Amino acid sequence: MQIAPLPKNEAARLSALKGLEILDTPEEEMFDEITKLASMICDAPISLVSLIDETRQWFKSHHGLKARETPRSLAFCSHAILGDELFVIPNAKNDKRFKNNPLVNEDPHVIFYAGIPLALDDQIKLGTLCVIDNKPRELNEEQLQMLRLLGKQTVRLLQMRKDRDKLEIEKRSAERANAAKRDFIAAISHDIRNPLNSLLGMSEMIREQPIPESIHHYVDHIKNAGEVILNLVNDTIELSRLEENASVLNNEWFHLSQCLEVYHNFFKQETKRKKIEFRLKNEISETVYLLSDKRKLEKIIWNLTANAVKFTHHGSVDCHVYLETKADENANLIIEIKDTGPGISPEIKDRLFQKYNEFVPDGCEISGSGLGLSIVKLSLEEMNGEINVESKVGEGSTFKVKIPTVWKREELSPGQKNLTNHNDSYLPQFSSRKKVLIADDNELNRKVLKNYLKPLPFDIVEANNGIETERILGSDQFDIAFLDIEMPGKHGTEIAKALSSEKTRPILFACTGLCMPEEKEHILNSGFEYFMPKPYLKEELYSHLAEIAKKHP
Asked: Start and end of every Response regulatory domain (predicted)?
């Protein structure tokens, strides 16, 4: 018996082999299929994908053989990797290199051997694809050619496996980076929202006081700055979800006029404060329902309108909504936002939807995050929609959105008709007094919420920690409870879960700065009926309360 000498490039060969990170890994179907096919083609009982390291030959696939490795000093493959072509031993008992080899005279009785070296592009040979029989024999030319081809496929599989593993490592690294980014954004969002709630709420309370107009002007600046920070936080979260493809379409049937109600009231107030006019022209019948992602659609309309209002100091902002219906239930929802702002120059227009493109025309005092339009663009791509911009410098801009949708016509119930006809007065209408609990460890947050609830027939009780909140709810009956989530002593979700088994329990509002989608889902699943992110939007709060007032007047 002769032991095969080491290849001249042994160091490079071992380095390449270890770089594959394949040694001692479990069996894989793609390699097992190669050895099974080789066995069938060559009519051989044993076929192996054999890799040679410093001391052994290790089998990535071992068809017809139980062993996973043998000593390198005994390996036929150690001889095969010294050449470039098929290494064939018709009868090992007649070959001086192998006739005293234990693998020949003992199990598995290797008499016939044919192995093709598995060579990388730089001719580094990692091992072989080989077939083995227990009797002397030959392979015909067709079998030899097929073995060569299978050898090439095995090398490709080794390379593909390496590339796949590399991609998997990069994917895991990207996932860890995304998780770290999500955690960072969630923490920053929470830490910013709580003080913003106080800042925006208090600025509104101050503005309601009989103070000089000059002071009102300063308060407006504070409120504007706070809203810019809030929009930046919201846009950062939204963009993060879109870029991760964590955002998914949630199509549902909804009535567009009801969606536009809060939107119309909000921008009526915003434009009134800026002494410009806001007009909404909705040509979609009240009996028409759309099938689309309601939340994304609202985000698109709000972002485009907020941009228009921000940049318009004289004149008006107009929103025109209509359907381009087709012969069947398919249609295009058209949204046009037109302003009389400064307009957009051609060089700015070309990069308008790029991330962090902060377009600040002359006369605009406070810039935005530079994320709103990129969010609109990404959301429209998800919805198979499109957006076009027409603008003249000094005259204004028009943004036209087209979104494919499905529509149907249904008559509204009397309750729904009432809901769509109270645009001028969106204050909830309760016919009886309600007992309400406000639980928050931050006194300013409690004051802000109390101020919003002041016009309503509510008897309000306050609590400043979780333990006190649980005690008060256990000793008295309440109609509505506004619970902060992260209170000292007891978490808001724990309180909600404990109340879920009670026969009579208040309607629960989750008031929180935890606003990531997964946080919202977790909070609502703990037993809350409503989710109210900080800083509170009065219009959203009143919309929820109006819904409650209809069910529990």
From this structure: 435-549
